[in-house]
Each structure stands twice: as C-alpha cells, then as structure tokens.
Amino acid sequence: MYYKKYGNTEMKMSAVGLGTMRYDDGLISAGKLEACAEIPLYAFEKGINYFDTAPFYCQDKSEEITGMALSQLKRDQFYVSSKTNFNAIKALSGGEISRDAFRRRLETSLARLKLDYLDFYHLWCVLSLDAYETQCEALYRFFEEARSEGLIRNIVFSAHLQGRDVEEVIASGKFKGMLLGYNVLNYRFRQSGIEKAYEKGMGVVVMNPLSGGLIPQNPETFSFLTEGTDLNVAQAALRFVASHREVTVALAGCTTKEHIDDAVKAVKGLEELPAREVIAKYETQGLSFNDLCTGCGYCNSCPKGIEIPKFMDSYNQKLLTGREQEILDRLGGHWVIPAERAAECIACRKCEQLCTQHLPIAERLQEIAGLAK
Ligand code: SF4
Ligand code: SF4
Q1: N or C: where does the chain have the smaller number of CB atoms within 10 Å of the terminal CB?
Q2: Which atom of ligand 2 is nearest to the CA of 296?
Q3: Does residue 305's CB lie within 6 angstroms of at least one atom of ligand 1?
Q4: With contact defined as beta carbons under 8 Å apart, do 110 and 116 qualify?
Q5: 288 belongs to a structural domain
Q6: Which of ligand 1's atoms lies nearest the C-alpha of 301?
Q7: Is the pLDDT of residue 178 over 50?
Q8: Statement: the pTM of the whole predicted model exceeds 0.85
Q9: pLDDT of residue 286
Q10: Residues 6+ apart with CB under 8 A from 172
C-alpha cells in the first residue's frame, strides 16, 4: 500500500480509503451485518487505514457495520471519519438544532462505531456558500467543544462546491482538511480548491472518483486513462485521482473483496505529481467532461416531481455517444420513464442551484421534451 501524509500533520494515510456507503444491500436487508463487516476488515488487511462513514449510508447501517469491524482493531492503527449537518441532527432531535441535539448525533455515531473518539468529523455536504455560512455559524462552536473534550480529533468539511467557493471555505482557517468530489469528469470545477488546500497544509480526501459508476460504464470513452498501464478503466480513474500530490486519500466504495483488490492495485507503485502535471498528462481533446451528470442526486427536490438524475443520466448518453436517440432509449428502456414528463418542467431552476455539476437542467429538459414530441 502507498501511504501519504495528511496535510501538515504527522498522520499517514493509505492512498485509497474505504468509502463505506456501498456495503451489500441484500446482506443488510437480511440483517447479515457481520458479513458486511468483513469488507472493512479485509481492507485493513490490505493496508487501508482510512474509513469514511456517515449517518444514513446503507439503510443507516454503515456506522454500525464499520464499528463491528473497527472494534476488532487496535485504535491507533486506523483513522475513521463521520459527518453531521442540520439534516443529520434534525433526524434525531425532532427538527431541533441545539448543542444537545448536536451531541446526540455525535454520541450516536460514536456508539454505533464503538469508539471513544472520531479522528475526523465533517461539517457535511456543503452545497453552497450560504449553506456553509448558516451551518457553520450554528454548529462550529459545538464542533470545537467536542474537539476540546477529545470526542473528535479534527474538524473537517465535505462539499460539492466549485473550486473558487472551496477556496473561500479554506480561507476561513477553520478546518484541518476536506472531503470533495473529484474525478476525471469534474476536475476543472474543483482543481483550484484542492491546490489551495494543499498549499494551506490541509488534508484532502476525495469521494466519487468514478463519478457514480459513469466512468467504468463507458470504458471506450475513458480508455485513454489506461494507456501504458495494466489497469482497467475503474482502476485507472482511481489512480488518476490518487496520483495528485494534493490528494491524500481517494475513497473507493467497495461491496466485495474483489473491489478492494481492485482499489489496492490502482495505487500500486503510485507516482505523485502536482495536479497540473497529472492533468496535463491525461488531458484529452473533444468531449467536455464537465457537462456530464455524475448522478449524485443533490438536485432531487423538484416541485413537479421530475426525477432529474434519471433524465440527466439519459442526457449523458447523448454527450457520450453524440446521438440524441440515446436519450430516449435510455429513458424508456433503462429508467422506464416517459420522456414527455420533461415538458412538465416549469424552469424554476431550483435544481440548478443545487446541482453539484452546475448543469443547465431546465434547458436540457426542454430539449428532451422537444425530442419526445
Ligand atoms: S427547473 Fe424544472 S426540473 Fe428543475 S426543479 Fe424546477 S421544475 Fe424541476
Ligand atoms: S443533475 Fe446535477 S445534482 Fe442532479 S444528479 Fe446530476 S450532477 Fe447531481
């Protein structure tokens, strides 16, 4: 395993970490949590020492499963992170935001993980600077208090902001590190953010390195990543992220032991380079990857009930293949949604304000509505 220093600390992290949002759904539904706990144990065996979890993941069982595994290990041999925000706190407090409600959420995470402290506690999922400011103002003092009591070691944030906005959060000087969605599709949105974090001595953990599965699902489009390697497209996309000098840990969401083997292979003999050099090495002409929906689902609050990620996923097919018909085929054949529903969009643009890729959703829906006529 290849290890990196977390920012300007002495902590050494494995270049790939375990993202614990992909434990086997079938096993969880069957109540077989111990079987899922074999995944983090196997990851640890393979040298992975960073485990990222959160409330709500995996039918809200991720923390418990991860705790079943980590409680079998020596506490100084791994790092674990969890997360909180207004939604997570309100879920346990009947809608209240207060010191007690914050503590209830944190103590629940600790109990589920069977731990006395978290190495990292995230101000979770900052989608806009406004949301960041509001939540930070309400919660940051509770984070500090928990840190001074030893319940958390490091205060960090996770965000889907663009690079410049990320830079603003970094400039606040409140955080030891961050968790950011970054991959070969969206690097242009976020590159300046990870560079700034590195410059400030912060740790950078990357989520969504495979863009929600979109990269391995389109091996031909992304085959350029594998040139000169013995890696498959998924491994090469993970390596793309991990080879950034600015990135400490690239999270791999693993359901099976084979997924872990894949992730471990992706960073074997890793060569670290500054972001600009990595990108220059991989940069290709043609398709603008930034135009693709990553399927993150943050736009899912349409007043007309339009299932936006499914429509935008279908639109991806056109961007990837150049054929408009692919949109309709995907909608009808894969998602089983009538394309005509796109016409119900009233262009309120609520979804666009939430979109982590800043896509012109209303415009695309209008285009789809036109194709469906
Ligand atoms: S712009 Fe259209 S798709 Fe987006 S939230 Fe408004 S009605 Fe829904
Ligand atoms: S449209 Fe934007 S917010 Fe919605 S799933 Fe796609 S990338 Fe995510």
Answers
A1: C
A2: 8
A3: no
A4: yes
A5: no
A6: 5
A7: yes
A8: no
A9: 39
A10: 136
- Lookup result for tokens 């965000």: 159
Task: Determine if ligand 1 sits within 6 Å of the CB of residue 347.
Answer: yes
Looking at the structure of the chain, the number of domains it has is 2
First to last CA, the chain: 54
Does the residue 143 lie in any domain?
Answer: yes
Taking residues 329-358, report their average pLDDT. 91
State if residue 302 touches ligand 1 by the CB under 6 angstroms criterion.
yes
Where among 282, 308, 323 does a domain terminate?
Answer: 282
pLDDT at 288 over 70: no
The answer to whether residue 287 is domain-embedded is no
For 42-63, b/e burial (b = at least 16 CB within 10 A) is bbbebebbbbbbbbebbeebbb
> Whose CA is closest to atom 8 on ligand 2?
296
pLDDT of 89 over the 70 cut: yes
Question: Which ligand is closest to the CA of 306, given by its number?
Answer: 1
Domain that holds residue 334: 293-372
Distance CA 342, CA 336 (A): 13
Taking the CA of residue 297 as reference, the ligand 2 atom at the shortest distance is: 5
